């Protein structure tokens, strides 16, 4: 289908599942210039559906089939265990040319292609929660029938959420372990640093401000400075100073090994989710 750049109207997008990530995608669409009337969101609970309509001005309802009928782009944003039943609802009413975008962890593109009409364009995406402030990372993989225009349209939808990177589907479990789940590791570190500050006698407010600002500054420096993180770490470490004393403790407590083990566990869980629900 066209990516809409030459269309008089933007493609009609339906987001199935208005939870944490579904709502983030709704906001991204609005920021990217979609009109609220061109965005549908579905929810199981009427209360949550109304909340989304009131907050964003978009249409909301509890019928996936109803919104799928008019969608040019269908974004599947429910939990992996619900994807099968949602596809069974929408597949019979999907129009030819509708692009199906999924953000569910673990489930392979083949899972969708087997359940959707022959030739359906599927794009698998792994976003992350900083998308809500426009600083997310999304990795996109094309399904068998997703063409360059479909991928350009998906990039356009995700543009307001942050960086978009294309990768082959075989990398998606690893991607999920690093950027999908990764914000939780960063929040874990920020929380631990803030707690340490409180232990050392700082007020909680000051400790949290220092921890958040430091992690944010370090990430910006790593991104913009163009230098390897190990070099940046060395630059903080004065000979015989405080930082080497601290990093020795991180090594002694196996923090680097723990990060690697955490990422392996996330990758393995992503594979398991695929096997569990895709069968
Ligand atoms: N959170 C994250 O950081 C990331 C999540 N993902 C993926 O995004 C997907 C959604 O995750 P997340 O937003 O965290 O989960 P949430 O539970 O916050 O959102 C899912 C939403 O879908 C609703 N829902 C359940 N069943 C249906 C249905 N049949 N039709 C319509 N809506 C339904 C749920 O309602 P109810 O609560 O009433 O069941 C809930 O509000 C998952 O597949 C996850 O793997 C991907 C990357 C990052
Ligand atoms: O925890 C999860 O399963 C989802 C996928 C990546 C981040 N959150």
Tell me about this structure.
Keywords: Amino-acid biosynthesis, Cytoplasm, NADP, Oxidoreductase, Proline biosynthesis. The chain contains 12 helices and 8 strands. By secondary structure, the chain is an alpha/beta fold. The two termini are 31 Å apart. β2, α2 and β3 (59-61) form a beta-alpha-beta unit. Helices cover 54% and strands 13% of the residues. Strands 3-2-1-4-5-6-7-8 form an 8-stranded mixed sheet, sandwiched between helices. The protein folds into 2 domains: 13-172, NAD(P)-binding Rossmann-like Domain (Rossmann fold); 182-274, ProC C-terminal domain-like fold (Orthogonal Bundle). The longest helix is centred in the C-terminal third of the chain and has 24 residues, at 255-278. The model is unreliable at 1-7 (pLDDT under 50). It binds NADPH dihydro-nicotinamide-adenine-dinucleotide phosphate and (2S)-3,4-dihydro-2H-pyrrole-2-carboxylic acid. Residues 105, 176, 180-181 line the site of (2S)-3,4-dihydro-2H-pyrrole-2-carboxylic acid. (2S)-3,4-dihydro-2H-pyrrole-2-carboxylic acid is lined by residues 105, 176, 180-181.
């Amino acid at each position: 289908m066209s990516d809409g750049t030459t269309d008089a109207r933007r493609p009609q997008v339906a987001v199935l599942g208005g939870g944490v990530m579904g709502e983030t995608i709704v906001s991204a669409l609005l920021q990217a210039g979609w009109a609220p009337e061109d965005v549908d969101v579905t929810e199981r609970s009427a209360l949550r559906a109304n909340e989304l309509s009131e907050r964003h001005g978009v249409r909301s309802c509890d019928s996936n089939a109803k919104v799928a009928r008019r969608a040019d782009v269908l974004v599947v944003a429910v939990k992996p265990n619900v994807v099968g039943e949602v596809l069974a609802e929408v597949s019979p009413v999907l129009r030819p040319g509708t692009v199906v975008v999924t953000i569910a962890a673990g489930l392979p593109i083949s899972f969708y292609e087997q359940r959707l009409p022959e030739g359906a364009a599927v794009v698998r995406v792994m976003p992350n929660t900083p998308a809500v402030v426009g600083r997310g990372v999304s990795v996109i993989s094309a399904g068998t029938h997703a063409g360059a225009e479909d991928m350009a349209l998906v990039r356009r939808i995700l543009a307001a959420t942050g960086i978009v990177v294309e990768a082959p589907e075989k990398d998606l479990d690893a991607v999920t372990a690093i950027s999908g789940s990764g914000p939780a590791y960063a929040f874990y570190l920020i929380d631990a640093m803030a707690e340490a500050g409180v232990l050392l006698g700082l007020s909680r407010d000051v400790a949290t401000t220092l921890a958040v600002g430091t992690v944010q500054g370090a990430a910006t420096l790593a991104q913009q400075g163009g230098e390897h993180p190990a070099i940046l770490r060395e630059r903080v470490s004065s000979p015989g100073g405080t930082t080497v004393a601290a990093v020795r403790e991180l090594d002694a407590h196996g923090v680097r090994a723990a990060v690697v083990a955490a990422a392996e566990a996330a990758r393995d869980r992503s594979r398991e989710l695929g096997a569990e629900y895709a069968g």
